[in-house]
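Example 3.2
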Amino acid sequence: MTGIEFIARERAEQLEKHGITTAMDVENYTKDELRYAAIFCLTLHEDWWPKNWDEDIRYRVERKTMIERESIAGALLAADIDRLQVVGLSMIRENYED
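Structure, written as tokens:
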């Protein structure tokens, strides 16, 4: 399986198995939570774990292989891209303008 296939499979699992939709992401994540969680998956540095997320999930992520964690990170970034597309590009620009 290729890297993109691993990521696509993980994203499909988020949507289908766990029932986490883009609409839910838009409603629940207004900051950088999805990106922070992706960074956590890559680094396992606890400072990146979103403060309002379930610690049990964090412990499960920590026990996964690097390929599994990178797949989750990619899927989380895909989820954030989906979320940003819904909220609109104007909001994206506002967050990064000085």
